[in-house]
Amino acid sequence: METVKVSSKGQIVIPKALREAGHIQAGTELIISAIADGLMLTPAQRIRPTKVADGLGMLAKPDRKKLADAEVKRRIGAMLKIRDEVTKTR
Length: 90
Known about the structure:
By secondary structure, the protein is an alpha+beta fold. The longest helix has 20 residues, at 69-88. The chain has helices spanning 16-21, 52-55, 69-88; strands spanning 30-35, 38-43. It starts with 15 loop residues before the first helix and ends with a helix. It has a two-stranded antiparallel ribbon. The protein has a domain at 61-88. Helix content is 33%, strand content 13%.
């Protein structure tokens, strides 16, 4: 455990050994949280959470025709049937 001082601007310096252990570099964003007996620093998420809608169309090919809903359901059903049969043979 190390002791640090808070500057007049409310800043602290994280000791080098702790920065290295936590892979904290200049520009790293940290989340500070109040816990029962102090404060906790955790790295902010590096990858933004995404939604399925964000990826729509990424795999689309210009010449590819869209499948009808009934065909999609049929193919999914066939895939699930195969998976079901495989689990029964184990």
